[in-house]
Specification:
This protein is mostly beta strands and about 260 residues long. The protein has one domain: Jelly Rolls, CATH 2.60.120. About 10% of the residues lie in helices and about 35% in strands. It contains five helices and 16 strands. The strands form five sheets. The protein has a six-stranded antiparallel sheet. Strands 11-8-9-16 form a four-stranded mixed sheet. A two-stranded antiparallel ribbon has the order 1-2. It starts with 13 loop residues before the first strand and ends in a 16-residue tail after the last helix.
Length: about 260
Amino acid sequence: MTHEAPLLTEGIDMRLDGERLVFGDDVHITRSGQRKVSAMSHMFDAADESDDSILYDTFVDVWEERDHDAFGGGKLGYSLTSIRALPVGEESPKTHGHVHTPKPDGFPPAEAYEVLNGSGVFIMQDMHDGPETTFAVAVHANVGDVVVIPGALYHCSVNAGTERFVFSDLCRRGMSDYYQHVHDAGGFSYKRRADGDFVANSNYASLPELEHVTAEEWSGRRIPPLYRTLRDDPASLEWLRDREAFVREFPRLADFAYPVGLARL
């Protein structure tokens, strides 16, 4: 599907040309990467470990050159992820997922995702030895929705639609992500099938019922577009870096500002 208009970025010139995310000449991308199905084959029930097709693309630290002063030297970075629509066997395509490494003060920095194209589900959970989880939620999001990601929760992104799922994210520059626990568990506690059903991951020794919420129900309020906010009002995003600000902005998510289980790393 080709989009004639720029995606909903409030500032970046980029378009979807079929399966490719195409950027304007004045867009700066610090680095980009891809993850293939073969690198995550053990996280799908019926993936071919020799399948080298691209599962998703990432673009890290992205900005329009005219916004260099606001983005190039700031404390927060704006990045993009684009997940294909084609299922892997009978499962919806997804990212690997990770958890944020706590800072010296014990606060794992938060993150925010904004859906720019398609629809998706952000799965978040805790993780304990076993593996076991005591909390798991599926946050359903559509174009324009912003989803708050508490840093203490493991999180992955799933394409729940029939077109490319593209979303942006804001997080603290230099933040470390930890992937090994998810890798060792064979993925998250729940998997989304291409028909829309969610099934439990049989690798888990114990897991709760999966909760389902909308982006606004999860975050507690509507959040303005990320690129524009970082460019025009970066001070309002202090909650991404500071625990007290996070708890103040999102009191219903306060419990997830403190690492538990394996997330204490």
